[in-house]
């Protein structure tokens, strides 16, 4: 039982009775009334803004109205103490018997305690972690992974159908750099002295294992090849090796994603071009100049494409917006609405 909702319903009932007996006028906005934890836990177990919301329309002083409502609330089950604080917050302290009763319910329902059908089976796609597949996970990835996975569990607990997605950033410059870094370790595994790792490459020893695996699988077949010949197979092999490592790390803390979406495969479908055209047609994209940082002069020719008329955080998660708008991809029509959790926020429902 959500006791905040439970007592809000009871407070609304008390207010309806006050309307019926003429103490309060009709047409008051009860929907704006909330119950929540007090800012100071010493004030009680829950607090309501009822008096402050209703005072002006009821033509009463908020604190006096709070006292009036508080007297009526004293008759509610398990209410031990009522106090009015500040401009009219009504604080409610519940008796120990309420908590004893709740403990008995917990012992009876066990793991089912707190479950509800609030979500009504609505489908939610939760995309999280999505660490770049260029190396092992770090502590920051782990923190986000745990927080988001708990969110997924909570959503399921209250009746949503949650699909956990990992968006694999396996396209673009970072993936190409990973391939080149792996090629160096491949040459090293075949006995070549590679010297210092070039600036901008990934220097981690974890790529030695990847290079060794390639050398054992393919031997020296790539040594005399041009870059355009080995770049793609090395990218694919290295990304797969990194994702295997990342999946194992996530499994160690009990996090399992049902879907891994490849950026490279998504781009290959033409989705990038499609979504940009889709947004341009609707006036959500303009070509222009970003304002320079404070105290800096604008560099000549720094033309950019940016979004207009949409929340700023969408600029960095337009792939998610595309999924939301078009349902492109093998699973996307089945998982709308989209909720994407990452370093910049979420696409609102």
Quick recap:
With 349 residues, the protein is of the alpha/beta class.
3D architecture notes:
The chain has helices spanning 3-20, 50-58, 62-73, 96-109, 139-157, 173-189, 206-218, 227-252, 263-268, 271-281, 318-326; strands at 35-36, 46-48, 79-85, 89-94, 123-127, 161-168, 259-262, 285-289, 303-307, 338-340. The protein is of the alpha/beta class. Among the domains are: 3-98, 2-Layer Sandwich (Gyrase A, domain 2); 173-252, no CATH class; 270-328, no CATH class. The strands form three sheets. It has a four-stranded antiparallel sheet. Strand 5, helix 5 and strand 6 (161-168) form a beta-alpha-beta unit. Helix 2 (50-58) packs across helix 3, helix 6 (173-189) packs across helix 7 (206-218) and helix 6 (173-189) packs across helix 8 (227-252). The chain is elongated. The two termini are 26 Å apart. The model is unreliable at 300-304 and 306-349 (pLDDT under 50).
